[in-house]
Amino acid sequence: MAGRIVIHHLSGSKINRVDQFPFESSLELTIGRDPNATLHFDALEDDVVSRRHAMIKAEPGDPPHCTLSDLGSRNGTLLNGQIIRGEEELLPGDTIELGSGGPKFTFDIEPRPANFVSRTRIVGTEAQAATRIVEAPGPKMGRGAGEPPLPITTMLPEEPIVNPGVGRNTVMRMLSEQRQATNRIGLYVIAAILAVIAIVGGVGYYEYQQTTAQQTARLQAQAAHIQKAVALQTQQLKTQIDQTKQQLGLSPQQIVEKYGNAVVLIHMHWQLYDRETGKPLFHKVFYAKQNDGSTYRLPAYVFIQGKLYRWLTTDDNNHSNFEIGANGTGTGFVITDQGLIVTNKHVAAGWMINYNQFSFYENGQAVIFALQDKLLPPRQFAMLERQKKPSNFSGEPALLHDIVSWQPEDGGPVFRSDQPVMIGNNTHAFEGRNEQLSVQFPGSRIGADARLVRASTDADAALIKIDPTQTLMTAPLAPGDDAAVGEPVTVLGYPAFSIKDGVIVETEENGEFRKQVKEVPEPTVIPGSISKIGQAPKQMGNVTTVSQLGDVYQMTATSGPGNSGGPVFNKEGQVIGLFTYGTAREAVTYAVPIRYARDLLQEQRTQ
Question: Against a cut of 0.70, is the pTM above it?
Answer without folding.
Answer: no
